[in-house]
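seq as requested:
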Amino acid sequence: MSKLSYKERARLRREQEILRTAARMIRDHGYVNLNMDDLAEEVGISKPTLYQHFKGKDDMVAKTMIQTMLEMEQYIKDLQTESAIDGLVQILRYMLKGQADPERFSLSIVQDAATTLQHLTDNNLEMREIMIRIKDQMYNLIDTAKEEGSIRLELPRVVVLSSMFAVLDVLKGPDVIHDWSVSTEDIIDLLPEMFRRSVAP
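struct tokens:
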């Protein structure tokens, strides 16, 4: 593979800076309130320069989420655990760490507008395909955990999976965390174990 030129490396660095800034602004103000003019000003570039990197807000967030989901898909593939429930707990911890990182996107932070994630996936075949693969990976783990006796048989897979994503909302909003007497790290350790107990027979 050929080595990237200085100009190409500089372009990639700028794109990463744009995406980090956009992630922070979305966390602070919500996806629907992300304004490309404000983003360009925050990064310190012109709006035309911003549009040299991304066609628009949806394109920018879609590309970032594709990268985030590919990383998650690989994380699940690389999991080495003694049981399926341990794998699910580790995946939940991984998602919580991503949720707590101010410079990372997660599936939940674009859902402040009810149709945003659906809109993005409807218009992006690659994103849809990755989401389906991740869902299938998770469903396989849930089925195996049921076979191993770690998850109640009567719990539908969609309920177990939805509850994992619902847990991410606990880390949304600094006011919630500020009111608690535990650190974010403690919360990230406690929530997966609460999930484990909540689905256990």
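Residues 20 and 147 are 41 Å apart (CA to CA).
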